[in-house]
């Protein structure tokens, strides 16, 4: 192929963006990951000098070892991090689905923190001839702490390029019909297998989303409202009445007020009130991770059973459910309209090469 980069076939790429994960369930790897994650001003809005002292003097020395034990409890044999495994699988299967649909679209995964880094992925796509880039965050509900931070990193990398690609961003898809349908089917599949909760008896269905400090909402972050809408649409699609399902927020950290109601206290309250069976699902996490597998599937289960609950059922995240891969493709297609999705015809490449040769002769 001609070495002139302008003569390569131009390609369209879709990059899935996710948060990231430690490379191993060890204190050293977890510390490196937490340091990068918690040093992001989008995540922690505290003056840098004050936060540096807190982070490096208190949080990292204490939390790295404890968090490493939690990661070890959910690490997949031979596969490693669940978040990495399922996120890579989603990118792989989305690319295969595009191919089966007759499209020639590059699909890859980039992590905001850790590997594969955003820079590494974008550089590799550039080398393959990427001229058009669609960013598809694996955060259905928009937040400055996740979506905006991932976009920031893409902008930072592209800011160093002389020849930048066309760029499109998907801000959110919290109410996208294909996404809601994939969530519904994931829950119904679990209920087909294990039986539907007896809501007349007092069984409940809980949807737990990752929490944020309340001040984020007060400053205008739409995340809280988008989570509530996802919860309402999923509840309606399952044919549930208000009161049969609840939306809660998990992963609270520190002493400040976070989005309410909190997941753990809600589960404890339900158990004490006589709820016998509780089904819990995490719609905001497209892939299982430490927050779902350790915090919800393990810790929350103990809370429910210790306070009188009898039957606790964790419903896995979407992961590689074919309906979810189809939903990702539908969401991507909505934003790819007008861009070529197939390889350039040979005639177009030949014409481009001919024009380049004519330009060379004109300069000699």
From TrEMBL:
Q: Which GO terms describe its biological process?
A: heme biosynthetic process
Q: Where does Fe(2+) bind?
A: 210, 291
Show the SUPFAM superfamilies listed in the entry.
Answer: Chelatase
Which pathway does it serve? Porphyrin-containing compound metabolism; protoheme biosynthesis; protoheme from protoporphyrin-IX: step 1/1
Give a yes or no for keyword Iron in this entry.
yes
Task: Report which reactions are catalysed by this protein.
Answer: heme b + 2 H(+) = protoporphyrin IX + Fe(2+); Fe-coproporphyrin III + 2 H(+) = coproporphyrin III + Fe(2+)
For this UniProt record, the keywords arranged alphabetically read as follows: Cytoplasm, Heme biosynthesis, Iron, Lyase, Metal-binding, Porphyrin biosynthesis
- The main location class comes to cytoplasm
* Superkingdom to which the source organism belongs: Bacteria
**Gene Ontology MF: a single term:** ferrochelatase activity
The Enzyme Commission number assigned here is 4.98.1.1
Name the CDD domains for this protein.
Ferrochelatase_C, Ferrochelatase_N
Please state where this protein is localized. Answer: Cytoplasm
Under the heading HAMAP family, the entry gives: Ferrochelatase
Q: Which NCBIfam families match?
A: hemH (TIGR00109)
Similarity-based family: Belongs to the ferrochelatase family.
Task: Briefly state the protein's biological role.
Answer: Catalyzes the ferrous insertion into protoporphyrin IX.
What is the name listed in the Swiss-Prot or TrEMBL entry for this protein? Ferrochelatase
Task: Name the source organism.
Answer: Polynucleobacter sphagniphilus
